[in-house]
Amino acid sequence: MSDSSVVPTVQALLARLEERDALIVQLKSEIDTLKAKVATLEVRLGKNSQNSSKPPSTDAFTKPPPRSLRRPSGRAPGKQSGDAGMRLEPAETPDEVVLHEPDACERCGLDLTDAPASGERFRQVFDLPRIRLQIVEHRVLTRTCSCGHRTEAPFPPEATATTCYGPRIQGLGAYLLHRQHLPVARTAELMTDAFGAPVSTGWLASLAARAKTLLEPFLETARQGLRHAPVVHFDETGARVNGTLRWVHVACTPELTLLHLAIGRSAEAIGSGGILGHGFAGVAVHDGLPAYRKFPVQHGLCDVHHLRELAGIAEATGQQWATGLAELLVEILVAVNEAKDAGRTRLNKRVLRGYRRRYRRLVAEGTRLNPLPPPTGKRGRPALGTVRSLLKRLDANRDDVLRFASDFRVPFSNNEAERGIRMVKLQQKVSGSWRSWEGAEAFLAIRSYVGTARKQGANTLRALQDAFAGDPWLPATP
């Protein structure tokens, strides 16, 4: 074979080898991308309410076993020795005494009408009296002055029409709807059957709008109290209003609850509640929604969410750093609780530094085991994936993750906010959605009022009745 024929053959072979190498590189990149996608899907498939932020309602028929941060106490279940029991104690002054006397002797049958009493026992039955509506007729007189002017006395505020229901029955209707979350039709049925008040569903539905107007003094008092609180919990959840997804936001403390409705979850939507961005300078505890970072305050992140995410990663990948970090967070929580029980207000500085070093080391180990995903060739940065995204948050926000350890006012979790918003989800299950923005706002105003009253030990039914009487209960604030 001549040299002239060999050269083209070698060049063609080299070209084929270059094509092969380029194809290998391309296929390897595609394989890496597919591996990352498979890993992401496996993590997503393995998520449930115990190892992620998914609600329990999404677990369907595969309910995971419950997890708890509590450690075994060694005590038997039920009432503990020495604890005060609960029982129905006899009343010193009963409303009614009914005397029961024997008519004849059980043995010989003689009449006992004039026989002397030789003993007495009693039993008290606690029961409801027969309930019926009390109808009060208000009559106003008109008197004529010597000057000739006629003056009529005013009707009381509750007498708004020739016949109308008063504040107590209005408060009861609102209580059944917005505290006990009964459907409107069943509330009407209950009030008819139990109280002899044949109310209409339309009348019941109108209570919320009237209550919202009457609760304005409470709403402003709660808003001011939250602005001056040292720590406030925030959360949000989706809700359907007139068929469109909207968002319910909550700001709360162990003493106060305030809910508001917004179009979305932006910083502007959060600020429309009147707390963040309106003079609040405390610690904002939340679940890590980026919009909260727009507000220049200290932040505390919910570590119960982190524990669930770390559990999911440990189950999906088997990586020990995730288990170790979860155990470290629980260890710090135990130390904080023990310090609080001992009357201390902070952890030992050396101990806290040791916790921080272990935290950084575990996050670094996770970062090493989970490198950045390879470039996809598309514009923009590739998606980090579940594991790397969590590691990034844990590293960038380590002070907020461990805020509960450096500031004992900050709790380990954001459960306070989740409890404050839980009844909104229940209402959505009962009613499906709200038909109007105004109706949703009215419901949230009443739930804010009822939730705060419960937290501060007030009787919620009486508080609602006072509100309809024009004198709403006002909470104690810091």
From TrEMBL:
Coiled-coil intervals, chain numbering: 17-44
Highest taxon in the source lineage: Bacteria
Matching Pfam families: DDE_Tnp_IS66 (PF03050), DUF6444 (PF20042)
Compositionally biased spans, kind Polar residues: 47-60
Keyword Coiled coil on entry: yes
Entries under PANTHER family matching the protein: BLL1576 PROTEIN (PTHR33678)
Name this polypeptide is given: IS66 family transposase
UniProt source species: Paeniglutamicibacter gangotriensis
